[in-house]
From TrEMBL:
Pfam families tied to this protein: Sigma70_r2, Sigma70_r4_2
Organism: Phytoactinopolyspora halotolerans
Domain RNA polymerase sigma-70 region: 7-69
GO terms assigned for molecular function: DNA binding; sigma factor activity
Protein name according to UniProt: RNA polymerase sigma-70 factor
Family: Belongs to the sigma-70 factor family. ECF subfamily.
Subunit: Interacts transiently with the RNA polymerase catalytic core formed by RpoA, RpoB, RpoC and RpoZ (2 alpha, 1 beta, 1 beta' and 1 omega subunit) to form the RNA polymerase holoenzyme that can initiate transcription.
RNA polymerase sigma factor 70 region 4 type domain location: 105-156
Keywords: Sigma factor, Transcription, Transcription regulation
Gene3D superfamilies with a match to the protein in the record: 1.10.1740.10, 3.10.450.50, Winged helix-like DNA-binding domain superfamily/Winged helix DNA-binding domain
Example GO biological process: DNA-templated transcription initiation
Length: 307
């Protein structure tokens, strides 16, 4: 097997590690590409290609994460991860860990960890690497990595997201919710939302967004019922789609360009959180990106005058 073949076989794993560390599809792809360049330039063949490449992409991602944290301190509004529609890596033995760890709720929890804690948690708890390989990847002793893992698990367990276990029930509820907000049905929306439900948007100052999270079933229901029907009148379409492993939707303008994505956290038969990514810089990997400002202006122009 050539180096190219070995690398391509492991590419899904490398991307999945990098995305969980960085919360960015574009940055994860860049980290994977840099990993290939370093592997290609390496004069010696590693004993374990998987261990070598996983360690390399982890180190690159840690460096990117440290610089990204500085940028996020000046980010305009709420920062959310870039939406991921499909996770390329599959492992039947770790399917639960992989699914939980890619949700936006889990990625936001990972943001609270230090870069080293985050790397140790992702490699050990999500992908099941042994402590020897984890230690090699992050440049710390096995004993230090065990301590980092304990701290990371404690932080993650304190806020670990819970989701609807029955996938079919979860998807059916999401479908009912999408129907209710396309119809502007305030009561229908309210019935499907948890009492303390919240809606969070990430426009990054580059797209229309609400200034702060909207909290409470009634407020969220009214905001959606007042907005979405207007969007539909200017030919925006709502496409049900899994986003970060959770039920969600993609909004497209009349030219089928992406306007935003939504992901829903569902538990106990209610939607707990809605996260909307509308920053155009975070949507290019999903498809051609539309002009959210133009769509918002068009929607406002068709708003009915008060009775």
């Amino acid at each position: 097997m050539t180096r190219v073949d070995e690398f391509e076989e492991l590419r899904p794993l490398l991307f999945s590690i990098a995305y969980r560390l960085l919360g960015s599809v574009s940055e994860a792809e860049d980290a994977v590409q840099e990993t290939w360049l370093r592997y290609e330039a390496s004069a010696t063949q590693p004993t374990s290609v998987k261990a070598f490449l996983s360690a390399t992409v982890t180190r690159i991602s840690i460096d990117v994460l440290r610089s990204a944290r500085v940028r996020r301190e000046t980010y305009v509004g709420q920062w959310l991860p870039e939406p991921l529609l499909d996770d390329p890596y599959e492992d039947p033995q770790r399917s639960a860990e992989l699914a939980d760890s890619v949700s936006m709720a889990a990625l936001l929890l990972l943001e609270r960890l230090s870069p080293l804690e985050r790397a140790v948690f992702v490699l050990r708890e999500v992908f099941g690497f042994g402590f020897a390989d984890v230690a090699s990847a992050v440049g710390r002793s096995e004993a230090a990595c065990r301590q980092l893992a304990v701290r990371a698990r404690r932080h993650m367990d304190d806020g670990r997201p819970r989701f609807e276990a029955d996938r079919r029930e979860r998807d059916q509820l999401a479908q009912r919710f999408l129907v209710a907000f396309t119809e502007g049905d305030v009561d229908g929306l309210r019935d499907l939302l948890a009492a303390d439900a919240q809606m969070v948007g990430d426009g990054g100052g580059k797209a229309p967004q609400f200034a702060r999270p909207i909290v409470g079933a009634d407020k969220v229901a009214r905001a959606l019922a007042a907005t979405v029907p207007l969007l539909l009148r200017v030919e925006v379409t709502v496409e049900p789609r899994e986003v970060n492993g959770q039920p969600g939707a993609i909004f497209r303008d009349r030219d089928r360009k992406i306007i935003n994505t939504m992901a829903f956290d569902i538990l106990d038969g209610r939607i707990q959180t809605i996260r909307s990514v509308i920053n155009p810089d975070k949507l290019g990997h999903v498809g051609p990106v539309g002009d959210a400002w133009a769509v918002a202006r068009a929607a406002q122009s068709v708003r009915r005058p008060p009775a």
